[in-house]
Model the fold of this input.
Amino acid sequence: MRWSQGLIPTLKETPADAVAPSHVLLLRAGMIRQLGAGTYTYMPLGLRVLHKAAQVVRQEMDAAGAIEVLMPALQPVELWKESGRYEAYGDLLMKLTLSGGHPMALGPTHEEVITDMVRDLVRSYKQLPMTLYQIQTKFRDEPRPRFGIVRTREFLMKDAYSIDADLAQLHASYDTMYEAYCRIFDRCGLPYVIVEAESGPIGGDSSHEFMVPCSTGEDKVIHCAKCGYAANQERAEIGGHDHPTAQPAADAPAYQAVATPGKRTIREVCEFLGVNEATSAKLLVYLADGRPVAALLRGDHELNEAKLRRAVGANALVPADAATIEKATGAPMGFLGPVAIKIPMIIDRAIAAMPAVVVGGNAVDVHLKGVVPGRDFPLDPIHDIRNADAGDLCPRCGGSLQVEPGLEIGHVFKLGTKYSKAMGATYLDEKGNETLIIMGCYGIGINRIVAAAVEAGHDENGIVWPLAIAPYHVLIVPLPGKDPAVLEQALALESSLTAAGLDVLVDDRDQRPGVKFKDADLIGIPLRVVIGERGLKEGKIEIKWRSQPEAKHVPAATAGAAIRAEIDESRRRHDESCRERIRARAAARSS
Done:
């Protein structure tokens, strides 16, 4: 391919609204182009990367025994109501009405569609297990699309679904997909970590995320360097379960009501009273499946809504508005407290360890000082309902937890019978009994593979693509000057390398060498080959890996063989590294 024919609109300046490295560099490298908030056109180079990432995914899914299908993006709303997710998914679900008044949705995911399919097609245990997958465009009405192709309203996703007869089959299917994901991300050259995760609106009882640590990651990876425990922030547990609950002091004075005019937030109240936020508590009210429930946690801690949802056993959890709060509790928002609370209350473990606390007084402009947990309000039930943070105790070994940002690229779930039960998907077992199908769900964001590769592989000059998903393997940069033989040599080398199965881009533009070299670094093709008049006169051609600082020279007569050898050696080292990771995972499982 010649650059002059390739539509590669590189930019010199950083777009004003781009912050994340992947967003900045993909725009500057002419690989994507924004159409609107959360929607992007993939230009030729970017599309090649997207296709290569999808091909790696497809190859590994096929190798794992999964069967490819393609399901409609347009889905009947009735399926979502049947599964019970219509309300739970909320405004993320893009809804529309077809002619004739038929309500439909653009699919953000396909659990309902796949369940509808298998309940019609699967009749006997003899058909199971099976795993079906697709690579399909998905739609989510993200309220805050950001970071370029990291969080968009339209995106390309691989989603797979295992259809199993029993838990043993589910566990085997899950393990197969887990290992396939490791191979996919290994092949794509991504520095990923695997963390325990929350299932969220997808549902299910077991889940892992594949995350790429990066400074602009939207998620947080909570991990322990001592024992290797890792989870995302939604799921991360906090150690210290065996820490005793503080016993109320027998001689503790009664609490005092103090006026706090106009002070509603924790910070305002604590500054006004001259106390530390860690000695205060905040009470938050949510609607759990429509029922009001309170959560009490320390003033300097953040509520983990996923933990609260699990603690109350709810499918849907949303913050209550001011009117609902006052109706349910009889107290105004901003001054809520646990003393004589009128609705069910979940208490965070940290509260149970406090001898006394400042809380809302359940009246306007009133707070209470010296409230004793266990004396002035009951400590029941107690749960871990806050976000884990750096320095908290590891739930496995008691070590110190660490926090770093991460970008989710894949997610695997054990769904169990969540959808088959709701939608009546059954099969006949060996005894002829009608039995619920057991399911698993496995998703990969193809766009996010592209973004994560840039987040993990870039420098001040541009992108550094992994060889496996780079738009081209080799970039040939002829510096013809006045000698047409230079371009002839470049095109001959391109023909030779292409015949050998390599993807080659030739920068045939009439530009200064500096411009070509800057663009070469920006677009990040792994191996750059420079052919110049002086070098040809000396019988030499320059080759340089984008990831390495130094170039080297090879004989022009054998340049094709030398380049193929460089590529082959790079692939060999990468493959060996992947095999070593496979061996390490197997050793970890066996131990």
Notes: The longest strand covers residues 401-416. The two ends are 50 Å apart (CA to CA). The chain is about 30% helix and 30% strand.
